[in-house]
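Ticket closed. Logging final result for protein-S-isoprenylcysteine alpha-carbonyl methylesterase.
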Amino acid sequence: MSTPTTTRRKPLAPLPLSQTGPFDSAEDLSRQGSGEDVFSPSRMAQQFGRMASEGLNRDRERAGLLSPEAQAQLPHPTMMEQWGARMSDLALISKLAAQLSMYLGIGWRWCVSFWCLVLFSVLLLPGFLQMVVFYFVSPRVLRSIPYGLQPRNRLDIFLPRKEWRQRGPRRTVIFVTGGAWTIGYKAWGALLARRLSQRGVLVFCLDYRNFPQGNASDMLEDVNTGIAWVLRNATAFGGDGRSFHLVGQSAGGQLAALALIAQVHQQQQQQPTVGSSPAWDPSMIGGFVGVSGTYNLYALADHLHKRGLYRNLFEAIHSLDGKPKLRELSPTYLIRKVGESVGRHLPPVLILHGTADKSVPMEVAVEFVAALKEAGADAQLKLYAGKTHTKPIVEDPMRGGRDELMDDVLSMVVGSECHNRQMAMLPSFLIDLASMVCPF
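Final structure:
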């Protein structure tokens, strides 16, 4: 099939990139081949000291990073309101966990996966703690900004450092996290968002309702609402207003891809489409990156059932009007249905996937890219040899050296090939052990 011609927006000229370590300090500029990416407890302690100092001056630092318009968007709850919200969230999480357990029952598969996940998290805990400190202390992280009126309609913003912002408005990434539609949370994207923001990119990480608080229709509504909010408000936080890239990981890849295709279809057909409410202008998206995405739900149903995400739960998540709609909610099926009328109007697409992904086999990504190309889309596939579902986004960034996923996303955003190195966050043997027990 010949690819129809279409006018593409000319990419912005690439920016010079600094090769920074994972803690943003000018003293941590990495040097290729110097061994600086090896884990060092002494250097890690120095970074914690710098972060603590930065945290003490957080309000002053943040004031220098934000415009008055941006500061007006930030919530300013009292201490009592903060604690009231935390207690309310704790009660809600407990209630939803009880409801979710009714679907899972006492199946041995999910029990094994749960305890493997606990061990995985314990082994990587020193690395996660570093991110926790950054997440709660850094003046560059704006947490839980409301983007809508529904529960969990919140997003985190990762601001580039001041020296980047002084160069002018920044390119913008909208990140939709994964989490098997049940345990997703906006902070899961913090490691990638931090790395991108270190290199001059403004990043928004969306939260959305998970099951059983909401089903697929609610999740899509939240994702669309969040994207629309970012498109309207990014300039207030230093975005350039014309260079947006949408990135989705795992379940977030399915939701983001579905929302993008549905918006283009709705724009072309001038009629409502499933997954396109509320509406936003898809022509503002300069590119889409899918990471380990679940693009064919129908093909994955049996596979995920065997891995502990049981069919009754899977179908309950992906239901519309009380009926399972696995095909209708699959980006692969949707792009085949709408064809060239939509495909040739999509922005460039980059699909990244590990060949050893046990949760979402790589064939799902291969099939999606083939369907996109058949529909006339500009789509590319890059397979990470030997990588699992989590290695590109969790273990590899913590290992130090080159963060290949971050480089691939950054290359898409800036329009030229990027290579960066950073300091290790953990000793390699802990990461190797964690990878061995990872249930994904």
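The longest strand covers residues 239-249. No further action required.
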